[in-house]
Amino acid sequence: xxxxxxxxxxxxxxxxxxxxxxxxxxxxxxxxxxxxxxxxxxxxxxxxxxxxxxxxxxxxxxxxxxxxxxxxxxxxxxxxxxxxxxxxxxxxxxxxxxxxxxxxxxxxxxxxxxxxxxxxxxxxxxxxxxxxxxxxxxxxxxxxxxxxxxxxxxxxxxxxxxxxxxxxxxxxxxxxxxxxxxxxxxxxxxxxxxxxxxxxxxxxxxxx
Length: 208
Description:
Elements: E1 4-13, E2 23-33, E3 36-48, E4 56-58, E5 62-67, E6 73-85, E7 93-108, E8 112-118, E9 125-130, E10 133-151, E11 154-177, E12 182-207
Antiparallel strand pairs: 1-2, 1-12, 2-3, 3-6, 4-5, 5-8, 6-7, 7-10, 8-9, 9-11, 10-11, 11-12
């Protein structure tokens, strides 16, 4: 039997207003029994306009408003390991489900402007700019899908995915006060738990 497979899939969001896909995913899977497998996933994403001017992150000392006037993107990658279960092994069309840990990294485009409602000692700050900033996510990724075997070496995949993860912003801030003095600092913000129940993936698998 063919125990290994290499998978490639396009990754898209159901609620995305853009016609283009959001990213791609590469996977290596090993079957241990006809009913079970382990899959390692590497995803690469590019999402336009995912932060909006009315999005607010509240902290103890300030409220952060993301200003989208520069039309910036978030790009990045994610890693996940999933246990997969196959309740209908051996069929030409196999159903499967899976879940496992996920780690994501997304870079926030340089030149992003962040508006603050801030307390002392920043009440005399004129403006903030963010450069070299990123967002981290840590949580779980689940999948429910079907695999259509065209022959022993090749199959097509259709999969629905959901993500539950905690997210942190790490912002490299540059700002000037009313005397035009330049300051830099790093702000790490826990943005809490996020849920994404809108992932659709279409792809193929080579078995060997």
